[in-house]
Target: Low molecular weight phosphatase family protein
Amino acid sequence: MAHPRGFTILAVCTGNVCRSPAVERLLRPVLGNSEGVTVHSAGLGALVDAPIDEPMADLLRAQGADVGGFAARQITEPMVREADLILPLTREHRASVVALHPAAVRRTFTLRELARLADQVDRDELAAASWPGTSPADRLAALVPLAAARRAHVPAELDDVVDPFRRTPQVYKESLAQIVPAVQTIAQIALNL
Model:
């Protein structure tokens, strides 16, 4: 079962103004603190205190996400140590996160990697692993080791989310199009949908 304090998800990208805030702001209202799950984000080279980059903020608003009150933060070793699940947006980010706190390796997945692996986990196996817990936090806590056991080498393009920062509107759309299905998969599993 999940920790009594709940379950913490940390999304990580480079500047913490495009990709990781998108994951945070799409997952947070679905899983929310009321369900025992906390979702936040940070950057490996954060543009500290910056808001979500406006082209990404516009796309997130179109998805119904709240983009207000966001301030980019620099990742720290305690953030990684305390998170139950770390979701970097690329393999390079994942390697940097693990370098900060090597013990986090088994709970650090790129966003798209976790979604892909989660699709391979049988729902009955997940239910048995999270029993007797039934909350999203319990299901996510059970999912992490089940997904880790299914890791396999795949091409980077299946794991990485393209960085749209200061690129064309089309690249922002492509980036969000890579994020949304992965977020939906993780949320559906957490909510047992």
